[in-house]
Specification:
This protein has 553 residues and is of the alpha/beta class. The chain is 60% helix and 7% strand. A 7-stranded mixed β-sheet has the order 2-3-4-1-5-6-7, with helices on both faces. β2 and β3 form a beta hairpin.
Length: 553
């Protein structure tokens, strides 16, 4: 709970399913004048909060399944609230209200009901509900949250300040109304077999298109940064003590590698965030998830795991946090997949840079494909006996025109997470790595990788790359060390194997520590040890296949 919440008369909590318009309602009512993030007690899950009237408005995580971690969070927030805003879609009024009712059936809190998607709700259902509101003077608002006008906002504020409230018994009576569902029009996703294939193509495009654009942006900016920023910075530090140079401008330098990493990471985070926000705003993401879920379950995941996995391509740390909304039966698998197969923005930026420097940018597509395939095989190998809990709640989202305001809001949230949470940690690690290099500690640590490199017929000079990639994934950039001397002795296949091993042997320290905090030491140890084994086995398989192919020639 936020420290200043106690001074308010009303603590209002908004609850509802994902894609119900809940977060849009929060942003419209609060006006986003001041938005805070409070940690859920005993965890790192964030709940958006903002002052509202003489109270405090809180947006809880979207519910997606009974008995999920998210629902437990919502129940705790209801206990602390004075007022509960329940949000259900008018298109699926009975279905969603029935599933939310157990959360508030015994509460004594003030209840206000918001029925969203009013523009898509059936006319008969809307009239039936309006009749109940008029006859019984119920605090129910039928609205389109995307276009909430000031008159409605004022009425909501008045309702909060008054004593009127929906009783649980009145909500139960509403469940007896004959309000039919309004299903969205069928799309190509509903086509048998072909629909699933198209959904996977769309999902792949959500990632590939932003990455390609980000690569071109970074490739254009990097020479400019070298000329106008990094070279000038190195000149300024030319007469400073060696330890200062190590920390700021050498291979691990806070200003050299830090700037370089930002150039290759930020565009990826920004554009993947734009892609994710656009598909969420249009409803396309939910339709894709519903379509591919049966196929995803065969690899031990659920449709709810897709969002964190995609987020992992921006930042693994944020993705691990988002995995709290996953089904409890698949969360460990989801985090394991993120750690292995979701290449974070730093990793993507570094690999794009390395392959480009080696004049083999075409290697990126097989690299990212093998990474995803490896993640699937990894989950099938270690979680093949894990049972996925059956569930039958689907989003049934409508495809609609995106709201520019909501789009900007979602992108802003992702960027702030990257800048305020991920970036500072990476910069701190950069300083620590500089000190480790100064005292030659990384060189000693790198020795343990020599047997592995010999096994894969790779030069032992690459050991430092593997060692530093465990600290942070853009450590792969150390292949450039020594003016790119490694490129002269590495074939494209060897470079591919080296980059794959550096990417997958373990997650970076920041992600590993986050997994430790989220799942505990034992689970984190199991995830990383299993990942190490899978990475080596897959790399060995590639090596054997390559040698057999070479032999056949």
């Amino acid at each position: 709970m936020l420290a200043n919440e106690s001074i308010h008369d009303n603590n209002i909590v908004i609850i509802g399913f994902e894609s119900s318009g809940k977060t849009t309602l929060f942003s419209k009512l609060s006006g986003k004048k001041r938005t805070d993030e409070a940690n859920v007690k005993g965890s790192t899950v964030h709940i958006a909060s903002a002052s509202y009237g003489n109270g405090y408005l809180k947006d809880t995580p979207g519910i997606n399944q009974t008995d999920s971690f998210t629902q437990r969070i919502v129940k705790e927030e209801i206990k602390k609230a004075t007022t509960v805003f329940i949000v259900v879609r008018g298109t699926h009024f009975i279905e969603e209200l029935e599933k939310l009712y157990p959360l508030i059936e015994n509460t004594t809190k003030k209840i206000v009901l918001f029925v969203t998607f009013s523009d898509k709700m059936s006319t008969d259902g809307k009239q039936l509900l309006l009749k109940q509101i008029t006859m019984k003077k119920l605090p129910i608002f039928i609205t389109d949250t995307r276009h909430l006008n000031n008159d409605i906002k004022e009425l909501v504020l008045e309702c909060v300040n008054e004593e009127d409230s929906l009783k649980p018994s009145q909500l139960k009576e509403l469940l007896n109304l004959s309000i039919s569902n309004m299903e969205p029009p069928s799309l190509f996703f509903e086509r048998k077999y072909m629909g699933t294939f198209i959904a996977f193509i769309c999902l792949f495009a959500m990632f590939v298109i932003p990455v390609i654009l980000a690569y071109n942006i970074s490739n254009f900016v990097q020479p400019l940064a070298d000329t106008y920023i990094i070279d000038k910075i190195k000149t300024l530090f030319s007469d400073t003590p060696r330890i200062v140079q190590m920390i700021f401008i050498d291979d691990y330098g806070l200003l050299s590698l830090g700037v370089y990493s930002f150039i290759w990471a930020f565009p990826v985070v920004l554009l993947i965030s734009c892609s994710k926000a656009l598909t969420e705003e249009t409803g396309l993401k939910d339709r894709i998830i519903d379509t591919i879920e049966p196929a995803i379950e065969k690899i031990g995941l659920t449709g709810r795991d897709i969002a964190p996995i995609i987020t992992g391509f921006g930042c693994n740390v944020v993705a691990v946090f988002q995995s709290r909304s996953c089904h409890s039966c698949s969360r460990t698998q989801c985090i394991s997949f993120i750690s292995f197969g979701s290449a974070c923005s730093y990793q993507i930026g570094a690999t794009l840079s390395i392959f480009n420097t080696a004049h083999a940018p075409w290697l990126f597509l097989p690299y990212i494909s093998f990474l995803l395939l490896g993640g699937i095989l990894h989950n099938r190998l270690w979680f093949k006996n894990q049972k996925i809990q059956e569930h039958n709640f689907m989003r049934k989202a409508f495809i609609q025109k995106p709201s520019l305001k909501n789009f900007i809001y979602q992108v802003k949230v992702d960027l702030l997470q990257f800048i305020k949470q991920a970036m500072p940690i990476f910069l701190i690690i950069c300083i620590i790595a500089g000190l480790l290099q100064y005292f030659h500690i990384i060189s000693y640590l790198a020795i343990i990788f020599n047997p592995l490199l010999i096994l894969f017929q790779l030069p032992t000079d690459a050991a430092t790359t593997l060692a530093f990639s465990i600290i942070r994934k853009d450590g792969i950039l150390l292949i450039n060390e020594g003016n790119g001397a490694l490129f002269s002795v590495l074939s494209n296949f060897q470079l591919f194997i080296l980059v794959f091993l550096a990417s997958t042997l373990t997650s970076c320290i920041v992600t590993l520590s986050t997994i430790w905090r989220e799942l505990g030491f034992r689970q984190a140890r199991n995830i990383i040890s299993r990942q190490l084994i899978t990475s080596i086995l897959l790399a060995l398989s590639l090596l054997v296949i390559h040698q057999l192919f070479q032999y056949s020639l």
